[in-house]
Each structure stands twice: as structure tokens, then as C-alpha cells.
Design goal:
Blueprint (H helix, E strand, L loop, with lengths): L16 H32 L16 H30 L6 E8 L2 E5 L5 E2 L2 E4 L4 E7 L4 E5 L4 E5 L5 E5 L5 E7 L11 E7 L1 H11 L7 H11 L27 E3 L5 E3 L2 H9 L22 H12 L3
Parallel strand pairs: 1-5, 4-10
Antiparallel strand pairs: 1-2, 2-3, 5-8, 6-7, 6-9, 9-10, 11-12
Helix pairs in contact: 1-2, 4-6, 5-6
Amino acid sequence: MGSESTAWLPEGVSTLAPEVDAIFKFVNLVSVILFAGVVLAIIYFAYRYRRKHPNERPLPIKESKLLEAAWIVIPLILVLVTFTWGFRVYMRLNVAPPDSYVINVEGRQWSWLYKYPNGATSAELHVPADRPVRLRMISTDVIHSFFVPAFRIKQDVLPNRYSYVWFQATKPGTYDYFCTEYCGTQHSGMIGKITVHTPEDFQEWLQNAGIPADMPPAEAGKLIFQQQGCQACHAVEASGGPAIGPSLFGLFGKTEQLQDGSSVPVDENYLRESILEPQAKVVAGYPPIMPASYAALPEDQITALVEYIKTLQ
């Protein structure tokens, strides 16, 4: 089940998209009819009761009880219909089925991180088709907002408390999502893709999304780096990239200048400290915006990240 694309939104590919589109079209249709009626009435009255002679005085007009009742009752009916219909859709959008697949979502300046029940993490969202999915979302810094046009869902993501949204995708494919709450200088870059898999393909992706125990540390670190969305802030190539945080290319072994005027050699201990306590030694020229949430990473993953950064030469 889905809905066609419109001038405002792409094709709807969730179970609730047709209901959202239907009430949206209803409100727009009623608004157009009322607008046309008001404009036509203005034109008619301007012509019908125009002054035909300079000294003409208008005749008194007796009020119409039927007309007064009509412009009270008809708008009241429209408001009640819209409220009742909208409330039903609102409740369906906010009450997830009890068998929903729950994914934890972490928003931060300026990327998203998704954590799955089996422990896998990803910087992009992967979900199964034809199964309700519930997102449990929280922000590590400021207010963000998670918006998926194709699913017709939007939910603010707040610090220090959970917010929730759910959907059931109906068509495998790749769809855009956005942050629609201004959250800083790189707000417009806080975008991503949702990949909707068939149930079988999703299970295969989920099994391969974790980090194999026999993977070399540097390779595991590269995978963790991508899963955690670190590339949104740090460049890893000589050609450059994001300038939000210091470039990691050629970083290991050099001396880094700090905001307090001191300098520090970039060794393994410095890299580890910068992951666990990013505000301890802030690099000159960059704002202290790296979240402290990476301190929750297991020690083996932190070690793998350090090994990966060492290879960026």
C-alpha cells in the first residue's frame, strides 16, 4: 500500500502514507473551495452593490438568519470533520504495534547513529519491508528532528529524554531522510538514506553488520568509524573532506596545536583520550562540539579506532 507522489512530497511507501495524504488533500481542497468562494463573493458584491450615481444612497439590507446560520454551521462541521479525522490519523501515527522491531537512534551534530537489537550499529538506517519498525530516539547535544518524506513521518529528537516514531515500509528501495530542526552550522548536511530490504535480505544484512571477531584491528576500526558516522566531521584523505573537525589524514605522529596555546604529540594515548574525553584537549581552530557519547564504546572498539587512524598516512 502506498500513495502517489505530489508537488510537495515523493511517493508514499508506508502503510500510513495514504491516510496522511488523504487528510492533507482534503484540507487543501476545502481551503481552495473556501478561498474561491470568498473571492467570487467579493467580486459579486463589489459589482452588485456598486454606487451607480454620485449621490446615490444604498438601501438598508435586512440580515438573513439562514445565511448567518450557514456560515456558523458549515465551518463548524468542517472543523469537527477535520479534527476527528486528524486525531485518528495522529493516534495511528503515535501508537506503534506491540510487535514492532525496535531500533535505537542517536542524533548528534551532525549525524545519526542506529543501534540494532543484536548489537550491530550503522550510520545509515536499514529496515525490513512489511514489518512495523519503531525508532527510539535521543539526542546527545541539541534538538534535532527526524523527517522521512516518503514515509510521511517527522519527530523531534530531544536531549535527555526518548521520543518515538514508527512506520511500516511497503516497498524495498532507498529513501532520503533529513534533520528538520536547525541544529548548528552543518544542519543542512545532517541527511542520510534509509534502505528498505526484503525480510530475507534484511536478515542477511543484519548478520553481516556486526564486526567479525577475526577481523584485523585496523579494518575493524574503519568499519566502526563508518558505523559511528565519524566521516561526517573528520576527513580521512589527503584531498580533504569535512572541515568540522580536525583532519585525521597524516595525524598520527605529528604535533597538534591546542586552543589553550600548548601543543601535544599525537600518539596512541592522545588518540584514545580524544575519543573518550573529546573536550580534554581541543585542537586550535575547531569548536568543542564532539559528543562525549563515544566513551560508551567497548575498549576493543576504541583500540580498533586508534589502529585505523594510525593507518591514515
